[in-house]
Amino acid sequence: MAGIGPGAADLITPRARLAIEQAEIVIGYRTYLDLVTDFLKPGQKVLSSSMMQEIDRCRKALELAESGGRVTMVCGGDPGIYAMAGLVFELARRNGCSPPIEIVPGVAALSSCAAVLGAPLTHDFASISLSDLLTPWETIEKRLHAAAQADFVIVLYNPRSKKRTSQIMRARGIILGYRPGETPVGMVSSASRTDESMRLSTLEDMPDEDIDMRTTVIVGNSRTFTWQNRMITPRGYRDKYGLG
Amino acid sequence: MAGIGPGAADLITPRARLAIEQAEIVIGYRTYLDLVTDFLKPGQKVLSSSMMQEIDRCRKALELAESGGRVTMVCGGDPGIYAMAGLVFELARRNGCSPPIEIVPGVAALSSCAAVLGAPLTHDFASISLSDLLTPWETIEKRLHAAAQADFVIVLYNPRSKKRTSQIMRARGIILGYRPGETPVGMVSSASRTDESMRLSTLEDMPDEDIDMRTTVIVGNSRTFTWQNRMITPRGYRDKYGLG
Questions:
Q1: Shared domain check, B135 and B77
Q2: Which of A25, A173, A208, B113 could form a disulfide with B188 if both were Cys (CB 3.0 to 4.6 A apart)?
């Protein structure tokens, strides 16, 4: 499994690139395959699928690998963060099959979005997916409360989709119970791609309409500040070096 | 600022490599510079420093950039996660200087360590540094309680140093207040380097002595399991697809 990072070709590691180039079969969600077409070779078999066929995609990859094929599954960002790595192992265990599985880590969405915003993640943070398709909303809410109360910077994955529209504003409401309205919020869509966009706001003024399924939202902790259109979390709570 | 990832040359992105190659001045902690010597060019000025000279290093980089030099600061992992990105912005703001600063994201330690372990981070996680040099221990404790109570996978950075030896076992004790002793724990040192090591254990049996400043510790959530020497967190709490 190769993580290709956020999308730009120069943020794909050489190891991921090689895993794609040397594969007999390349398999992945269409959007990610489109980002690596330059690395595909004639003679390779390419299997692309739509977003909602995750289980089938992983099953197919395992089947092909079991029968001796050299298969590379392409994932956006890092395959280990809210992606297919876990599912592949779950399926392999369930099916009692165990082809050698290598995870090639990539630049995660939280890293690429943080880089666009400045430096929001330089202190403790919690990453929470707002998708309640596979996780009950009560569990998500509990985590939002815990992360907000303990002053973590909070990274929100899957903040909104066409069908799931209310979660991001409910999350905002929960966090506002613990943090002031002026807490910085950064929103990044399609980091490193041609349609990249970023926007800084605050919990109070956070725009609902700019957020979609390609957006990652980062909510600052009590020390996070903005400066020159950047979002920055200081690394220390102690002003040890007189930087406060 | 260029993040070079965990250490292996083939996990450095082309963008980070180019930033190093095109710099007039390359600046960084000695250990990280040693990992990129192959990319350095004759004629480049290289400034290396020891771990504890972080402020001086960032100040120097800003000064040189302000006076027109093309400076690249090399960071291990991702420059935005517990690294120098925040400090550079803090210093720039304080000094009222603002040379253009670009953050080139890298493969973070949490991504590379997760890849070595299997797939421990495929659901919500909290990242906590156990270093109380810049953060009061009470704040760290509060976060450990919150993360453990809300069933986050927990990534522990800086678990131990020569001088700070008790924190990791205190953290373990706190988490054990919320999770059973058999909860999987993964420990990875020097991911992707020649001296890489990984070990799986449980909260109950977690070995104190194998952990040092190069180790990242990942504690599973209530669903995390081990299989064939891998640590895997299922992505769903709902057995929607009959994978339970």
A1: no
A2: B113
Domain around A138 = 109-232
Minimal CA separation from A95 to chain B, in Å: 10
Helix segments in A70-166, DSSP class H:
84-95, 109-117, 137-149
Chain A / chain B CB contacts < 8 angstroms? 256
Per-residue model confidence as pLDDT tens digits over A54-101: 888 999 999 999 999 999 999 999 999 998 999 999 999 998 888 999
Per-residue pLDDT, averaged over B23-35, amounts to 94
Written in H, E and C, the secondary structure of B175-203 is HHCCCCCCCEEEEEECCCCCCCEEEEEEC
Same domain, B115 and B36: no
| Same domain flag for A131 and A186 | yes
Tens of pLDDT, residue by residue over A114-155, are: 999 999 999 999 999 999 988 999 999 999 999 999 999 999
Q: What pLDDT does B143 receive?
A: 98
Position A244 scores a pLDDT of 43
Domain end (from A39, A64, A95): A95
Task: List chain A residues with CB under 8 Å of B119.
Answer: 79-80, 85-86, 88-89, 103
Last residue of a domain, one of B95, B119, B136: B95
User: Is pTM beyond 0.90 here?
Assistant: yes
Angle at B115 between CA B18 and CA A85, to 5 degrees: 110
Cβ-based neighbours of B63, under 8 Å, separated by 6 or more: none
Residues B86 and B133 in one domain: no
Nearest to B86 among A91, A104, A232 (CB): A232
One-letter amino acid identity for A142?
A: K
Does residue A102 fall inside a structural domain? Answer: no
Quick check: B134 and A18 CB within 8 A?
no
